[in-house]
Amino acid sequence: QQEPVKDVTIQNLLFRNAAYTYMDPHGIPSGGDCALQRSAAVCEKIILFLLPFHILLFLYLSPLDYLRLIFFFLTDTKVFVEGSINLVVSGCHFDRVDGNGLMLSGFNRNATLADNEFSWIGDSAMLAWGYTNGIDGTAGDQPRGTRVLRNIVREIGMFQKQSSAWFQGRSAQTLIQ
Q: Which of 148, 114, 149, 144 shows the shortest CA–CA distance to 129?
């Protein structure tokens, strides 16, 4: 939230064959009996795919944003985003991801998730899960202004039975079309 990454687009990539995350530590995103892991599935292949583009990314982004983007792909994730403004994920295919597909965690503003396909997902396809201090969300550490547009989601919940195409907890101002 202090220095978010701005205006990053992830487009037309294939994310597949990621490890399961259902044994990762879980948290409770809202009232009820639902618990989730705050992660997405592990995928090392995306690093190899991005290697040819590192020089272009470095030239285009500031050094701090470049390091954050690389860290973003090296964390225990398929696509896990925390601390972004105007992120766009479009035209991507998430296939046989044995955990969550794409998670917006904590501070994220005006993210757009559009025209993606999710198939054979172990848990939920897309999630937005913020942080609060008890019931007080005034610190603003939640995904807000997210747009979820024209995504295709099929064969989800292969391992997690309380899964969904879109999960939202401690988040606000989401548009789903």
A: 144
| Cα–Cα distance measured from residue 138 to residue 156, given in angstroms and rounded to the nearest whole number | 33
* Strands (DSSP E) found in 13-164: 14-18, 26-27, 36-37, 79-81, 84-85, 88-90, 93-97, 102-105, 108-109, 112-114, 117-121, 126-129, 143-144, 147-149, 152-156
pLDDT in tens, 22-57: 677 777 777 666 777 766 544 433 343 444 444 455
Burial 94-108 (b: 16+ CB within 10 A, else e): bbebbbbbbbbbbbb
pTM of the complete model beyond 0.85: no
The pLDDT > 90 percentage for the chain reads 35
User: Is the alpha carbon torsion for 61, 113, 111, 97 positive or negative?
Assistant: negative
Rg over CA atoms, the chain: 15
Name 23's Cβ contacts closer than 8 Å, sequence gap at least 6. Answer: none
Angle CA(90)–CA(93)–CA(97) in degrees, nearest 5?
125
pLDDT given for residue 66 in this prediction:
55
Give the strand pairing for 26-27 and 36-37.
antiparallel
- Quick one: DSSP state of residue 135? T
